[in-house]
Design a protein that fits this description.
It is built from 2 helices and no strands. It is mainly α. Helix 1 packs antiparallel against helix 2. The two termini are 21 Å apart.
């Protein structure tokens, strides 16, 4: 079972990789790479939001 901290780290990693791809695609004019980077970054954003929601509703 993956611990919540691991999932949060995965989200941050996904966001960072997406930003890098997006920047690289923009720098070289590769719209496909830029779009893939945006999609990956968004996936990381969604994963992070999911983890924050789970934390908010977790009984204390």
């Amino acid at each position: 079972m993956v611990v919540a901290a691991d999932k949060k780290a995965q989200a941050k990693t996904e966001q960072a990789k997406g930003k890098a791809k997006k920047a690289a695609g923009g720098a070289v004019g590769n719209e496909s790479l830029k779009a893939k980077g945006q999609a990956q970054e968004s996936k990381g954003d969604l994963r992070e939001a999911k983890e924050k929601t789970k934390d908010a509703i977790k009984p204390k």
